[in-house]
């Protein structure tokens, strides 16, 4: 009992420490899509190799003292001041770099998303061995020598549906001598969209699709003109019957036929009675299924309707709507 | 393996270069097989690199390490002398290369390399050695830099430049620390060097020893006088006093063979006489004795005064040693002789050289006084056909002095000193052989006296009633030129001077250019030794007094930090003063202005949205401005992401157009499409 509460106490302290660290670092390096490194944002401390080097210097100093050897003193002091000079060089290697968030790819839960950064040169002509990584992402080692900037792609497993925030990016370097480690923690305000986890159902409920008679379905954008109908919000511009509009016949959309099997609406209500996440997962599965078969489908969520369509962009819009259902919009 | 742990190929090449550069100055001291281990290690690592061989397994590593230890133990007979320790260190350095896999292995290897550079100084602190070590430090630093330039797969000299710059930036502060860091005594005893490299006089002497020494042109020590340099004939550098004759060999009386009450020198009256002051810098001799003129006193801490009025050091002179001394050349010493001393200085073995002893007793009987007897023996050397030569030939194994005095009559200084002291003691006069150096070369560049090994000499001291110990040099009776002009002049006739070292620059003193260079370099060495090598506590206090007046801890710290700032600020400035940043960042500024305009209309750019995606979204809302939005987005993308592909003219043009477009972009709130 006693030890349990102790561990809990420890845990609480650690949590409180982490919180305070977060608050402190948020003040010091506020989240931003583009960060230029300056002395407020760069930390520097001897690396493990640097500490070992200091130990070696101590041994050398003792040798110099015990042998009363002046040039040994001189060499020891030369290396000690080299260490100090290296501090400046290590700092200069990070100083002035600009790190920009470029892109965060969307992903399904359990997949790895792709974060793309752009690192641009600072004041040095050359920057070496810039190591960047999120705590649990893949890492990259970048040199900036001839080019002004370099793109860095990091992969990272994502969590559950919604916006995934990767936390602070660690950018570090021990160039040139490895004796000192210079680093910074950056919040690049990057969010990756995480779609719902696709969950299959044997069939899409509420579709009268058993009659596989090859009935023509209405698919906008196809070549064969079929009929005119009332304009619905969301219809693409090129489907508007402009000639009719010019003649004062009101706003109509042209409908075209395509050879599709089903007219599909993915509807929130189709999965009534299930928990929210499961509903979204099923909808996601079917959206992917339709997309794979290149069939037209639309989405109806409470307070959101996406008109039927096909193509990557359409799928993206649908998945995005599913991903963000009931979530806060990402803070800009 | 973490991507940071990979060793770039360029670094590997530099590490191998370091390996050989660092071992080079040690090479002459090392057994040949150690160099073989180096070649093996490098070959192995290259074969591993090429994928032909693999890294050694644990058992192989253990076997190699054990056999290296055994090899060192066999070669040096011990593991605790400095030579053996350094050889082990060098082997560890080579073998570490074979297990060089990760970056941290390279750290261990290269830091060890710095340490190997340091050990070289324990053997020599010569200017050339120092310069070479500085080069080595730059090379090791280069390897460290190359280690942190990932992806550099081709050999590149580029890191060498940065290493040179960094070492140069470190030098000024190093000098300050060097002169400010307090010097104190050793904290514990350290491994000593084995006797293999002992040079100069040894503590025993038999005929032929000094002549052998005369073949070397090494410098024994350098002396700087405060005033005028005394004439050559007065420069008798006493090193050893040899009072004991046994089986044809003269040796010194050991410290513990002297009774307690005799261990302190009898006080010498120096009242009212100005001493001759001078500073000696000795080359490492690995022996304990120091050199000084007649009746020398030294205030330097490490110098001890022996009862026979010579100077010595409690620890062997392993590195260049500087001490100052004062001499009263005319002062009579030990006018009252203790009975123990008298016995010690007259003792002879029972029964060799009967003819010489008989001759001495006869001559002493004929002489009016002890002084007259000394003169008559010197006159004998002078008038009889005695020859002063470096090649005296061999003397008979028994009764060698009888052979010398009556038959061969060819000898070097030690023969004359031996015969002379033998004759004095046979007549009952206290006398002894003194070994040391005589004369020296005056360097006109800096007025120092350079004493070479070939100036080694042996002479005698006789104790005379009322006068104390008097220096007598029988060699001067045979060859006055040796004392007045040095060995080279004395040997001019037979060409035996340095005949075993044909390349010695001292042999070519007659060629002005060579000689000038040699003397200048020697003057530089002197300055180096007195300022760098010989810098000690005493010099430090003098220097700090000259600079700051009073010495306090606060002044120390202030001086250190003050100079640190003075040195580091320019470095920081040169590193951080900023390349023109505008060029690369300008496009961001314009694009941000563009985004701000849109934001004012409620069209915020969302996180994770690329400029292209943002443009698509914004165009839907502002169909009227689509052309401008497209244009700005395209220009921005070009400038930000296709940067390296742009020529600088294109870049300037792009920036200009982006600026213009962004300024003219004035979207209207009313124009927002209704949705």
Describe the structure.
The complex is a heterodimer of chains A (332) and B (675). In chain A, helix 2 (48-67) packs antiparallel against helix 3 (70-94) and helix 5 packs antiparallel against helix 6 (312-323). Chain A contains six helices and 17 strands. Chain A is of the alpha+beta class and 332 residues long. The longest helix of chain A has 27 residues, at 2-28. Chain B has helices at residues 9-23, 32-50, 58-76, 82-98, 103-123, 127-147, 158-180, 209-213, 339-346, 354-366, 370-383, 400-408, 413-426, 474-478, 480-485, 487-490, 512-533, 537-548, 553-576, 582-600, 611-621, 626-641, 648-664, and strands spanning 204-205, 219-225, 236-242, 244-246, 249-251, 276-282, 296-297, 303-305, 311-313, 321-327, 387-388, 410-411, 431-438, 441-443, 448-452, 456-464, 468-472. The model of chain B has no long low-confidence stretch (mean pLDDT 85). By secondary structure, chain B is α+β, with helices and mostly antiparallel strands. Chains A and B meet through helix 2, helix 3, strand 3, strand 5 and strand 6 of A and helix 5, helix 6, helix 7, helix 19 and helix 20 of B.
What is the compact description of this entry?
By secondary structure, chain A is of the alpha+beta class.
Estimate nothing, just give the exact number of structural domains of chain B: 3
Order of helices and strands of chain A: HEEHHEEEEEEEEEEEHEEHEEH
Q: Give the helix level of chain A as a range of percent.
A: 25-40%
Multimeric status of the protein: heterodimer
Q: How many H/I helical runs of chain A?
A: 6
CATH class bucket of the largest domain in chain A = Mainly Beta
Number of strands of chain A: 17
Shape of chain A: elongated
Low-confidence stretches of chain B: none
Helicity level of chain B: 40-55%
Q: Gap between N and C termini of chain A, in Å? A: 46 Å
Q: Can you count the helices of chain B?
A: 23
Rg value of chain B: 39 Å
Tally of distinct domains of chain A:
2
Looking at the structure, the CATH topology of the largest domain in chain A is Immunoglobulin-like
Provide the residue-averaged pLDDT of chain A: 81
